[in-house]
Amino acid sequence: MTDKYREETMQYLLPMLKTAVDNHTDATLEAKILKKRRKLRRKMKEQSDEKIITGDKENNKDAESNIAAMKTNEYVNRNNNGDNDDRDDAFLWEIVKIRAICRMMASAYSIASLFLLLTVQISLLEGALHDDNDELLSNEHKNSRSHQNDHCNASVSSDEHNDNGSKHTHKQILTQTFKQFFDVGVPSLISSLERVVAIHLRGWNMTTSLEMGANEFVSGINSIRRIFDEEHPFLCFMTSLTAINNSSDVDVRARGILDETWDIAESELFGKTLIDCIYATFDTMKYDEWNSIFYPTDAVASSAANLSCSSDDLSKKLPLVQIVTMLQQKRWCKAGNDVKSTN
């Protein structure tokens, strides 16, 4: 039951997780402004080129001056960019970079925690149902001791009772736990990640011609993970269930499972297991998603097959702007990026 429930529930929760993460890492507006300014610069350059070819000496002088200033924000603003945004390109690119990386990393952290929390809660639910089933069967056997033929009916009725009860309890647990996780935990996680990324990836300047290969990219992401994990114990993003348990909407069995979940989440074993889940999720992203950015298509399979391969020989060096743009286009919260796929 555990694997089936976990798989079905992950499929149900992943779209909700994607929405929660995307809403707090959205850089669509900034990307559109940058794209519009780039098109304007290209248009102005074409006009300046025409003046140089066909214009008089004075026009040529102006055109050459415009070309020299083409990459500056002053030039765009002077020619009425029309986006009503006074933020310069460097600032906008920094926002796009931070949010693209945070969206990827927050998705990995959240998928790992969802997987582990679901495993714990469904296992606890399964244990509670097993105990209830034994108790119900025992009571029904006592009441029908003189009717041997009623044994089969007792088993069927107890199964039906527990199936309905498990669905109700499971729904309560999901509603109470993961609504809080999406509404409170995910925004808090992303906010903390943004601060770490902004400080420690300052050297990844989007307005220069900086290029990097797979090893450099992975090294940068791993450095963020080390710093983040040291400064922010992940348990702090799992909202305390104390207030939830006082809710009148939670039945006794659900309240008991929520209490046990929080006790387990505070344990040393849970912390170590969560770290393993996070590593497994990042590994899945690395070999399923990052490789498609840095390696030629025919090299992805061989690289993925040899997970211990650290060579950067096959990796393409790409402009940072292109890498971040490709990260933005990735869909991280999806089936296949969960922990189970690495088992």
Please, could you describe this protein's structure?
The protein is mostly helical. It has 12 helices and 2 strands; from the N terminus they run ααααααβαααααβα. Strands 1-2 form a two-stranded antiparallel sheet. The longest helix is centred in the middle third of the chain and has 55 residues, at 89-143.
Secondary structure elements and their pairing?
Blueprint: H1 2-24, H2 28-54, H3 57-68, H4 73-78, H5 89-143, H6 150-200, E1 211-212, H7 214-231, H8 242-245, H9 252-265, H10 268-294, H11 297-305, E2 318-319, H12 320-329
Antiparallel strand pairs: 1-2
Largest sheet data: 2 strands, antiparallel
Radius of gyration: 28 Å
Q: How much helicity do the residues have?
A: over 70%
| Order of strands in the sheet with most strands | 1-2
Number of β-strand runs? 2
SSE-based structural type: mainly alpha
Mean pLDDT: 75
Task: Report the sheet-strand fraction.
Answer: under 5%
